[in-house]
Amino acid sequence: MKVGPSPEWLVEALEAVGQRSINNVVDLTNFITFELGHPCHVFDLAKLAGGSLVIRYARKGEKLRTLDEKDRVLRADELVVADAERAQSLAGVIGGADSEVGNQTTDVVLEMATWDPVTIRRAARRLAIQTDAAHRFERIVDAREIEFAARRAAALLVEFAGGALCEGVLADGREFAAPTVVELRPQRVRDVIGVDIPDDEQEAMLSELEIGVERGGSGTLRCTIPAFRHDLTREIDLVEEVARVKGLDAVPILDRMPIVAKPPQESEGAVRAIGTVLGGLGFYETVTFTFVGREAAEPFLPPEMRLLKVDDARRSQEPYLRPSVLPSLLACRRTNQHGQVEQAGGVRLWEISSVFAELDKEGRQGIENRNLALLMDVPGEGRKRSADDRQRGVRLMRGAVESVVRARWRGARLGWRSCRASLARRRLTRRRRRRCWWRGSGSGRSGS
Known about the structure:
The chain is α+β, with helices and mostly antiparallel strands. The protein has twelve helices and 21 strands.
């Protein structure tokens, strides 16, 4: 084939979506990305060692110079397209400079593929690479449409770059997923939208969206979802499609909403009751961030557990999901202290939030609980607190916990026992601790 300038229509089409023209071969692959939503890549065949392409994971520390002329050091969990010797492309993210198509290129290999979204997202974010290809692969490109997109790309390359298309196709991968089928009740559509749309009209609307429609039993429509519509998985999704095609301006707007007021869920009622009680006791609710640093998290890690770390460059300073809400409350209290905040009776904070950890065993078994955490200043005068001050603080905290329980469960009784501190490596463990028992099992800890 002949690599050269792109035709004017192609240049204008790419400029319309914010892309600059490079050459006819590369521009055509970019055009396919925006036309069909299927990113593809071309390699200069003469630059591939052994004339082969291998899909594999990178070797730890393997280097790749990408098309932006940056040298990347790869990790063993990042997928690459390689030749017989080295990586030539970071799969689904960005191509390599060593096999780039240039003016001297005469033979190319067209690659059209789909990749695991999590693998692509992890590599793109770690290396801080934002490309149109990665954006699409992170959001699922269906393998069932690869063949059509590949044939379309090959036809354009032959037409506008000349040359000849070699016979045969190299294809591999998992078996295609079965089509998604959703049952739609036409009466349900009418009930939700509030517009009387006949069954035949609904069927015609969905067919126009390339959704296969067959009449099912009990007056339902059996809808086969096209491969490119991963957002259609439920009946309500199809109801929305019918409303969109019909026109949202056709949906009636009522002066009054015919709704039935229901009491809040039990969990919401419990949170309200807790907030009311703690607010009366002088506690302020906080909403703190879920991530903490290792130094803040480790003292609160339960036995036989390990921390959960998020592999994201944006969380490089505090990458761990907190195993307890307490380090977040302590950080909030420190901020108040630095701001010289004074409160009668001392600063008192509370929060209900999720905490995370995983079992310290082979494999990964994550645990998530929703906990209530309280933090309060020990009352007293001066900078130091006496043993009597600390005992008073413990009694106040115990009273707050018992008030919360009794407000929600009348007649409930809590038992308190001395226990060994689980925070074995920090100064926090030097004080006496209590464990709270309710209904025969441990339900919390307190300490000063």
